[in-house]
Write a structure and sequence with these properties.
The chain contains 7 helices and no strands. By secondary structure, it is an all-alpha fold. It has one domain. Helix 3 packs across helix 4.
């Protein structure tokens, strides 16, 4: 049975599909590595320090809470720092503190969501490229069969079918990896957003004295 042993044995269009799928796999790995490094740099998931900041803020230790929030380089700490700064700058104006906290969080959450559409594009595009390779492989296979002077021989179809099945499998594999990676990253973003929302609400609606500090 004939199987393509080198890239030269494949149609030029099929080679193009394989190259495109290879580029998509590189894009998926690159974006995934970039987002993981970005999340680590932003301190995504490091919520313990946020709990400590809130505990200090709501239990009469505002200076310690502000110090800890300023010392930590995390999304949650920056949001809480903005909230506390607003409450201390305008005592009693909870809306101002909340607005500052939300603006700080929005900036970081927007950065966290950047390049996620690339993974979504890979999820949609990789299977389509795989199907394109399938069509190309089958066209090539039946073209070889039509050009043959012999009776239908399964060996004449083998190369085209191999190309068709390989591109489909590769496209689906890349799409699955991108899909699970995108969902995992989006889950972490959503978890961070909800945590920030709850932390801001706790800081705003805690027992606050007339000077803007918690009692």
């Amino acid at each position: 049975m004939f199987l393509p042993s080198t890239l030269q044995d494949l149609p030029a269009t099929a080679i193009t599909v394989f190259v495109a799928l290879g580029l998509l796999s590189v894009v998926t790995v690159t974006v995934g590595a970039y987002k993981i490094a970005q999340f680590r740099r932003l301190g995504v998931g490091r919520h313990r320090i946020g709990e400590e900041i809130l505990d200090d803020w709501l239990n009469g230790r505002p200076n310690e809470a502000v110090r800890k929030a300023g010392a930590e380089n995390t999304v949650l700490a920056r949001a809480l720092s903005a909230v506390m700064a607003g409450l201390r700058a305008r005592p009693g104006d909870h809306a101002y503190g909340e607005e500052l906290g939300r603006q700080s969080a929005l900036y970081d959450l927007t950065a966290m969501g950047a390049r996620m559409r690339i993974l979504e594009a890979v999820v949609q595009g990789a299977p389509m490229l795989g199907l394109l390779g399938t069509v190309i492989g089958m066209i090539d296979a039946f073209g070889n069969l039509a050009a043959s002077q012999q009776m239908a021989d399964p060996r004449l179809l083998a190369g085209g079918i191999w190309t068709a099945l390989t591109t489909t499998a590769l496209g689906l594999a890349i799409a699955l990896v991108a899909y699970f990676l995108a969902n995992w990253l989006e889950g972490r973003i959503e978890d961070e957003r909800l945590t920030i929302e709850m932390a801001i609400s706790s800081a705003i609606h805690g027992r606050v004295g007339a000077n803007g500090n918690p009692r």
